[in-house]
Amino acid sequence: SKVNELYHSRGLTPPLLVWGLLVPGYNFVTGIRQIHFLSQFWAMERGEQPGRDAFCELFPFATKPTLGVGELFTSPELWIN
User: Fold this and answer.
1) Which of 20, 30, 31, 15 is nearest to 65 (CA)?
2) How far is 13 from 4, CA to CA, in rounded Å?
3) Average pLDDT of span 30-52
4) What is the Cβ-side half-sphere exposure of residue 17, based on CA atoms within 13 angstroms?
5) Strands, E, within the chain: which ranges?
6) Residue 30: which of 14, 44, 48 has the closest Cα?
């Protein structure tokens, strides 16, 4: 929830479904997204452009601003690029 709190403190939409950390399998997705959005946040705070991220380019679910579990499971285009 810390990533969501950081986003909320800047008036941005929180990107993570925190309960996703409790669901086996989906917790991996949430963890990957947590890392991505935390790095995006700190780049924004420092006034920097985030660098290229090969993992996120390969797995589009990591960068989707909001992602529900139903959307992930029904949208194969989010699985791998």
Assistant:
1) 15
2) 8
3) 94
4) 17
5) none
6) 14
